[in-house]
Amino acid sequence: MAQDSSLRAIGWARPLPISTGVREARDWTRTHMNALGWERRAPDLVDSVVLTVSELVTNAHVHAHSTAQLILTWDEECLHVTVHDASPQLPEQRHSDDGARGGRGLLLVDALADDWQVRRCARGNDVTACFQPPTQAKATQVGPGRYRPGPTKG
Prior knowledge:
7 strands, about 30% strand, globular
């Protein structure tokens, strides 16, 4: 019997103008994490997702001076958190000194997400962070194109 290999995904999208504020993005994201059941099963993971949203939306507003387009996509393997902004420049991970008041957003995303990437697109760029569900083992890259299971997150 052949297995159905079609991709099944659900998603939510929301524009967040600079005037909206980051709190609205966090609250909106937490509502959708609750709908997935993650709030109950993995509250620390939900906190990581919400903090990542906060950092990425802040970056879009502060550094790109742009409305943030927040997109959450759940494909049963990964929750993809994407924030689009209108900046012509790709965001860069900075190494700020201990006394700096900012500049650690992408360092936090790197520490919290299972994977993340920056991609230039026609009208700006996207930063996407991937979070594996609470029960799925994290894969670790061990060579070009080779992965091995890692510890379960959450």
